[in-house]
Amino acid sequence: MTMIRAETAADTAARERLLDKAFGKTRRRKTSERLREGRLPSEGLAFTAVDAKGKLAGTIRLWDVVAGSAGRALFLGPLAVDCGQQGKGIGAALMRHAMAEAKRLGHAAIILVGDAPYYARFGFTGTLVADLHLPGPVDRARFLGVELIPGALDGAEGLVAGCGRLEALRREAA
């Protein structure tokens, strides 16, 4: 039995190991990372899946961004599931949970860079972000968006930029 819960500080080391395994040590060189650098996930939108023994089985985070002319949106990523836990629906459960919570919190849209066939089942499509661009190279077939509020990405164009809470602020508060 897997449980999805809010990410905690105690999850950090296991999450980082999982992400290194899933995406490789060069994961921080990707364009998507430019949107997350030095920032904290959007308030209340970082989740982990843990197995019955309390071991981290998956992770998902959403980040605050400005999606060009569309204004505020969320950037999803990374989503990762432990290789020994894949095929059990954990990734899909994390996606559904994160999207539902984002909608409940009043967010209008989510964008991401990922596998189009996988994310299509959650409503993501490239047409919604066709005139948006990221701060670096990206495979356009993997650049996708979904509207949580209909029309949120209508006519969206321009640069996607990070705008969320800064990591430094958390360190200063501690």
What does this structure look like?
- With 174 residues, this protein is α+β, with helices and mostly antiparallel strands.
- Helices cover 26% and strands 26% of the residues.
- Strands 1, 2, 3, 4, 5, 6, 7, 8 and 9 form a 9-stranded mixed beta sheet that branches.
- Strand 3 (56-67) and strand 4 form a beta hairpin.
- The longest helix has 15 residues, at 90-104.
- The protein is globular and about 45 Å long.
- 34% of the residues are buried.
Structure, briefly:
The protein is built from 5 helices and 9 strands, in the order E-H-H-E-E-E-E-H-E-H-E-E-E-H. By secondary structure, the chain is of the alpha+beta class.
Q: Tell me the Rg in angstroms.
A: 15 Å
- Helix tally? 5
| Main β-sheet description | 9 strands, mixed
- Global shape: globular
Average pLDDT level? 92
Which features would summarize this protein structure in a list?
alpha+beta, single chain, 9 strands, 174 residues, 9-stranded mixed beta sheet
How is this fold's topology laid out?
Blueprint: E1 3-6, H1 12-23, H2 31-36, E2 46-50, E3 56-67, E4 72-76, E5 80-81, H3 90-104, E6 109-113, H4 116-120, E7 132-133, E8 143-147, E9 158-162, H5 167-173
Parallel strand pairs: 4-6, 7-9
Antiparallel strand pairs: 1-2, 2-3, 3-4, 3-5, 3-9, 6-8
